[in-house]
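[agent] plan:
  1. take the single chain provided in the ticket
  2. run structure prediction with default settings
  3. attach structure tokens to the ticket
  4. add a short note for the reviewer (M.T.)
[agent] executing step 1
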Amino acid sequence: MSREQRLAEVFVELADTLVDDFDVIELLQTLCERSTELLPADAAGLILADQQAALRVMASTSEEAQLLELFVLQTDEGPCLDCYSTGERTVNVDLTTTADRWPRFQAAATSLGFRSTHALPLRLRGEVIGVLNLFCREQLTLTDAEIALGQALCDIATVGLLQERAVRERQLLAEQLQSALTSRILLEQAKGMLSERARIEVDEAFALMRSYARRHQKPLRAVASAVIDGTIAPATLRATST
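[agent] step 2 finished; step 3 output follows
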């Protein structure tokens, strides 16, 4: 398959969320995963503003990316926060040169093995609702074409969050994001419980739940709830993934 064909597939995949009752977390997780597939990045994380305008970590491709995003929000420091506040991209950040500007972020990112980072806004008509963060284990500079592609992916995801509902009724968007946050908390609990019960890594636990949800066309939050209450056993999730 050519790169052009794959790009077309990804845009269709993201556009397929533009229907009633779409899964917000699935949309954001897909955005993170496709960004690391199509761009030279090793990990991605995504933050969104909730109904109180507080930023929350909503998706990531690895535990390292999620931990770094949480650290950013806890310390109120990092390029993604600059991106969110200004609505402008903060890209091609060489972490070896940022100790003066973001000392705690720089130390945390490099300790996790990252050497460069990029932040792209989720925005529509001047309204910024979140940021996609890309993390690289090498000092990499994105080309103008790569930056444009990353922004295009963010833009279509933003439309998925706003189109047909939040543009007309902002409160509905707030309810959606709050519901997604609640679902995310449930997922984190389920990931930890499944990891402990099955004696597997947290990332593998999440992958098993997500695979089960997709195969059975169930919302991730429903699968997470079933894992927590024991309705779905680790063996069932493993059998489904094979």
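[agent] step 4 note for reviewer: The first helix runs from residue 3 to 15.
[agent] ticket updated
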